[in-house]
Amino acid sequence: MNPTAPPEAAAAASAPGPKASATERASTDAPSSASNVEPVDTAQARRDDAQQAAREARASAASATAAQEASVRDKQRASTNTKASLAENLEAATEAEAASTANSQSAATDSPTGRTVPPPAVGMPPAFSDAPDFSKLNAPVAPPPEQAAAPAQPAYLKQSDSAWSVFGRIVAARARQIFDRAGQRITQRTLRIGVSARIFHPEPGAKGLRGKTLQYLEESIAHWVMSRDVLVFMIPTVGHQGMLHPSNIRLRDYAKHLDGLLLQGGADVSPQSYEERTTRPEWPGDRVRDMYELELLHEFVESGKPVLGVCRGCQLINVAFGGTLYGDIATDVPTAGIHVNEKYDQHRHSIRFPDGSTLVNMFPNQREAIVNSIHHQAVKTLGRDLNIEAVSASDGIIEAVRYRKSPFVVGVQWHPEFHRAGGAELLDCTPLLDTFLRVARETRF
């Protein structure tokens, strides 16, 4: 082996080749060969790396500090230059203003007219001479606004409220509003009062209208009811058995759709309707109208609607509940006073309200009154469940009745439609009409 050869060459020469024997290759694994390998200190290497990283970090920090200081110096130099420039501009402007003033004075002196010419307006922009504010250059950046807090629950809500409970209350409130509006529309609807028809029967052998059956109402009775802003409808007889124009309409349909019934005066009640014989052949009464009005009265009473009977209507109410009539007062009660004469509605007499009469409440502080009198029939035997509301002051003839088992079924023997409202002599029957209409409004449903 060459003693001058490098160690790498010596190691290569000493290493067994690929064709070396097994004994030679095994000799390299001997313990004695391990002494030729230098061990590596890994801990020392890590310390060296850490020191190198620290040196690099210090160098980087020093470089950043130097750059920041250089930036500050640049800003200061720029600020100084700006101030110097502003000062130079201010000085130049001052000199220009002084020169302009001198020129103006010279021009004023040289003026041929001798007048002083005002100098031209020379000025600087507003706040031009103010010192600049450099504090805004280094103003701190405003922090971002904080996120708004979640809105608190309204005070009118309960802690136990849920979305469904609130929704339920909203629906209930809306339903109440709808029902209130509907109720107002219904209750404020104009009342509809039905008036029974007078019947004119055809005259034998007559032509034209006199040969026809006519149904009509007296104008004053309609206007009296309409004076309280009420709609009035005449209720005709029904022709469900008619040969020419049969109909399925019944009187109960009128009782269903109207709010009250007024039975107007007219022909006598037939004695056949209360099972008595006719005292005078010239007063047979009107059996056809009796049957029509008795059915009409029955339907309104069954519907709970109010009924007001006038003259004949008062007598019909008594007959409907089983009472009887005097066919002719002068014949049947010779001692009675005069209840009808040729003066017609100008004839009058006095009545009084007995104890327990509801008319006392309608006409307070009045136990007697003056009314017209146009009837020759009158109540004889009082019908069942009827009360006497007024009597004739001179002879005790019944002048008004009331059915106890209904809200308002009242009959008066006089004609209130012929009394002037607010009249000084005759009884003002407006309270009677108002009570009738009030009950009609209360019982309309």
UniProtKB/TrEMBL annotation:
GO BP term (any one): polyamine catabolic process
Biased composition (Low complexity): 7-21, 59-70, 84-108
Region listing for Disordered, in residue ranges: 1-154
Positions with biased composition (Basic and acidic residues): 44-58
One term under GO cellular component: cytosol
InterPro entries attached to this UniProt entry: Class_I_gatase-like, Peptidase_C26, PuuD-like
Protein name per the record: Peptidase C26
Organism: Caballeronia pedi
